[in-house]
What we know:
Number of domains: 2
Strand order of the largest sheet: 3-4-5-2-6-1-7-8-9
CATH architecture of the largest domain: 3-Layer(aba) Sandwich
Shape: globular
Radius of gyration: 20 Å
Mean pLDDT: 82
CATH superfamily of the largest domain: P-loop containing nucleotide triphosphate hydrolases
Keywords: Chaperone, Hydrolase, Nucleotide-binding
Domain CobW C-terminal: 232-310
Protein name: CobW C-terminal domain-containing protein
CATH class of the largest domain: Alpha Beta
CATH topology of the largest domain: Rossmann fold
Distance between the termini: 30 Å
GO molecular function: hydrolase activity; nucleotide binding
Amino acid sequence: xxxxxxxxxPFTVLGGFLGSGKTTLLNCLLNMTKETRYAVLVNDFxxxxxDERLITAHDGETIALANxxxxxxxxxxxxSALTAVMDRATQFDQMVVEASGVSNPRRIMxxxxxxxxxxxxxxxxxVDAPQFxxxxxxxxxxxxxxxxVKEADILLINKAHLTDQSTVEAVRxxxxxxxxxxxxxxxxxxxxxxxxxxxSVHTAIPRVGKGLASVGSKATSDHDHGHTHDxxxxxxxxxxxxxxRSTFESWATDLPPSVIxxxxxxxxxxxxxxxxxxxxxxRTYALESSSGVPEQSSTVVLIxxxxxxxxxDPIIYGPFSTQ
Length: 323
């Protein structure tokens, strides 16, 4: 997505205890993204391993990349770095903030809820698969680790390839007990493109008309389906007439946990002169009125794991089943 930013900047917090893999994930995000211009606020430039061929400028406080992304150091404080990005907000599609390894990510997200120039896009917390259970036996760090877990919208069990399956299952069971309302994912690869975890309504909807990552579906199909990345699946659902609001909300509530993000522009029969922006992060969702020109049609993008049912399953297509 290129061009001027016409709305508040989506704001995602990336949390996780020391050593959970936040820096590696941010490296992948900055080096692999092609369509979304991220402004990433990090604690330490020295830990990043950005491909030098991508760097177009480096002034000691910021690194500009050829793909439109920018990395900004928080060495002089979070507020200073945030101000530097907001001064250039129209140049970016999303902001991602790395929380320190021992901090509560909620304190950062609370800022997004107060600034009209920012819109919360969820908190993603990484869990170190080989170390998590041991961390919970350490009285010095247990509370900090669990606080981060309980603030997450999406939990990513990271570095699963470095331990055995029984440990991963035990970690997941513990996380489900601590935060049952959260979507939990597993990453068993050293490197992967994490951008679907951060994707937002503001970056995805403009691409819907182009068939977001759709393959194998006809151009006239009302349901586009495909692969966003090899670890994630996506589908686009459309309906040409206004939807019943209660039916839509029941569908949104009942979506399976394998649907990690949803976004859409919705028209309801109960409010024909108003269009709504719907966004799902993990197991929570929100509906907000849109300032755009109302349309009769509705379009939704769902992004999920490999376990997400296809768009031929009624739990997925729901109210989008008939025209």
